Amino acid sequence: MDARFTAEQAEIRRTLRDLLRKRCGPEELRAAVDTPAGHDPALWTALATHLGLPGLALPEAHGGAGCTVTELALACEETGRALAPSPLLATAVLAAPLLLALGTGAQRDALLPRIAGGGLTAALAVPGPALATALALTGHDPGGAWAGGGRAGGVQARRADGGWRLYGQVDQVLDGHSADLLLVAAHAGGFARSRVLLFLVDAGAAGLTRVRRTALDATRPQARIELREVEAELLGRDGDDVPGALARAGDGAAACLAAEAVGAAERMLERTVEYVGRREQFGRPIGSFQAVKHRLADVHVQVQAARSAAYYAAWAAARGEAAGGLALAQALDALRRAAAEGVQLHGGIGFTWEHEAHLYVKRAAGDALLFGPVHRLRAHAADAAHVFEEAG
Questions:
Q1: Mapped to the 3 state alphabet, what secondary structure does the chain carry?
Q2: What is the residue range of 379's domain?
Q3: I need a labelling partner for 130 at 20 to 30 A (CA). Which of 73, 273, 287, 296 fits?
Q4: Interval 311-331: pLDDT, tens
């Protein structure tokens, strides 16, 4: 493994950091999350159309840049630093890999160039609070019981009029209220022949209701999706290995999420170091106290370790290897620690709504709820590696 960045990778980081520094400061961030979309459409246009972020990891044949998960993870690290709300995670990290892996030739040709060009956003709808399980981050269930098990609940699919119709509800869909296209995981075949399939649902389909929900982390807007006999198009073919495709997409997603958490943790650490360097107590900056230095040094070490894990996970995902779960656990731990120390060392101001520190605390807690928790990420990785099995 060559850990050095190429000139192109370094340029992606530099350009994106400069743009977000100008366009996504604290005031712009607060204004963006309060909009109906939950993000700044002008900023998304700049990220998608001008910089081409949604197409970074898509093949050139489908309008993408032909890069790998590594480049996408580097982009996510920079958006994580700014906590920039955008459809990047839902569209490029979760939905696009599934379209690429499962879509028919016609579906890929029709959808992926639009995603790469920024003209189409997408969201993955997984029933119940089971996104981490569906992506095989905290467990692997090839039977798809996480989607309802073919019984009442979840989303059910049935054939009708030569096509498919969906009925059910999904409660936690990232950017589901604003996405142009939904990828809905549903059970088909009833209980006896139950199987999980993915379906394409247009945002304007009859019978579809989307309501933005109040979320712990406002920078990750979520929606409740209700489907009442909604016409849908099967993604790929009946019989495709949907759980397997979700698991492979999950490992790349975990690498990107880990990089994103590392970016947020590093930025929180930078803000804290800057603050303790100018906040005085007993006639000297509090950053000069040995106890404060030790605490921040520990955070720095944890963040750097998480960065190494995230970069390795991205490199491994590009080679079809799985390392994302452990990297995500390490990064979420680092973000939680950096946010907690930042709030405390900022003193009274760190606890106020007006300061940005609480946004990083909420990102750490929100990601752990959506994609973790950390102990389950580690436990599943240990099980997959047979760590605790007795030698035969």
A1: CCCCCCHHHHHHHHHHHHHHHHHCCHHHHHHHHCCCCCCCHHHHHHHHHHCCHHHCCCCHHHCCCCCCHHHHHHHHHHHHHHCCCCCHHHHHHHHHHHHHHHCCHHHHHHHHHHHHCCCCCEEEECCCCCHHHHCCCCCCCCCCHHHCCCCCCCEEEEEECCEEEEEEEEEEEECCCCCCEEEEEEEECCCCCCEEEEEEEECCCCCEEEEEECCCCCCCCEEEEEEEEEEEEECCCCCCCHHHHHHHHHHHHHHHHHHHHHHHHHHHHHHHHHHHHHCEECCEEHHHCHHHHHHHHHHHHHHHHHHHHHHHHHHHHHCCCCCHHHHHHHHHHHHHHHHHHHHHHCHHHHHCCCCCHHHHHHHHHHHHHHHCCHHHHHHHHHHHCCCCCCCC
A2: 243-384
A3: 73
A4: 999 999 988 888 889 999 999
Is 269 part of any domain?
A: yes
pLDDT tens profile 228-274:
999 999 999 988 999 999 999 999 999 999 999 999 999 999 999 99
Domain boundary among 195, 218, 240: 240
Structural domains of the chain, count = 2
Look at residue 186 and tell me whether its pLDDT is greater than 60: yes
| 235 and 267 part of one domain | no
